[in-house]
Amino acid sequence: MGQVPVAFISHGAPISLDDQDWLSALHMWGKGLSSVKEILVLSAHWVTDRLAVGPASLSPLLYDFYGFPDRFYQVSYPAPVSTFLLEKISGLAGLGPISVEKARGLDHGMWVPLKGLFPKADIPVLGLSIPGLSPEYLYEFGKRLSPLRNEGVLILCSGGMTHNLGDLNFQEAAPPESWAVEFDQWVVGRLLARDVRSLLKFDTQAPFSHKAHPSTEHFAPLFISLGAGEGSLSEISFPVSGFRWGTLSMRSVQFG
Predict the structure, then answer these.
(1) How many whole angstroms separate alpha carbon 174 and alpha carbon 243?
(2) Can you tell me whether residue 14 is helix, strand or coil?
(3) Where residue 54 sits, what CATH number does that domain have?
(4) Could you tell me if residue 161 is inside a domain?
(5) Residue 24 counted as domain residue
(6) Maximal C-alpha separation, the chain
């Protein structure tokens, strides 16, 4: 078995599941990931000081949002728990102590993209927290996860290429703001140039970095994917792109 790719996905919001173009792009992307046997998913909505995994048994989803139509609080994603990953994670070098959150269900940063990529919910899944927000540390952390790729594990890092909720424009067909486009294109350019150093210093080097990310938890998963996909930086693709609500880049990245 060859190495499974690494993915960074911009998950948007629960209402992204109403976007048929986005769902179609994810379905197509998922079909190309036929070698995936297990999924390790890391979400911008689970940042911890101490590394944690969960759930250890099938648990209700987390509806960690408010103000959406009732149907989004009825969504299910009954994927089996990855007992393989529960055992494997503890044996990876350099991760340190890991707590098991036995009943922590998948949050919306996890189940929203999973419903698009793998709608049958038939691949075992385990959630892993993001240990802090330091770009350099998360890059090295991603490297420690990389050996899982050789065992059929998709490392799915879920966040957002841009994430400024205060500047969203909910008008129909709102054009993307120029600053959001410029930031998005800067990241694409640095990825294609394999310029990891600049990406890790995005807050001082990228145009409009603080406008694109007033807080950095949604960009943090990209650094993990960079580390986990280090051996595949010459094989970068963008299975999903485009903007929603004027400022939210939905660009996603595959390494390998």
Answers:
(1) 9
(2) helix
(3) 3.40.830.10
(4) yes
(5) yes
(6) 49
Q: Is the pTM here over 0.90, yes or no? A: yes
Taking CA atoms, 92 is separated from 19, 40, 86, 240, 248, in Å, by 38, 13, 11, 31, 35
Number of domains in the chain: 1
Cα 57 to Cα 71: distance, rounded to the nearest angstrom: 25
173 falls within a domain: yes
From first to last of the 256 residues of the chain, give the pLDDT tens digit.
589 999 999 999 999 999 999 999 999 999 999 999 999 999 999 999 999 999 999 999 999 999 999 999 999 999 999 999 999 998 898 898 899 999 999 999 999 999 999 999 999 999 999 999 999 999 999 999 999 999 999 999 999 999 999 898 887 788 999 999 999 999 999 999 999 999 999 999 999 999 999 999 999 999 999 999 999 999 999 999 999 999 999 999 999 9
C-alpha dihedral sign at 172, 186, 202, 150: positive
Q: Which residues contact 116 (CB under 8 A, 6 or more apart)?
A: 16, 17, 22, 23, 26, 27, 30
**SS3 for 160?**
coil
Measured between alpha carbons, how far is 172 from 8 in angstroms, rounded to an integer? 27
For residue 1, tell me if it sits in a domain: no
- Distance set, CA 24 to CA 4, 12, 102, 196 (Å): 22, 15, 33, 30
Per-residue tokens: 61? 């989803």
Query: Residue 54's domain spans which residues?
Result: 6-255
Contact 198, 205 (CB under 8 A): yes
Helix-helix angle 20-31:108-117, to 10 degrees: 70
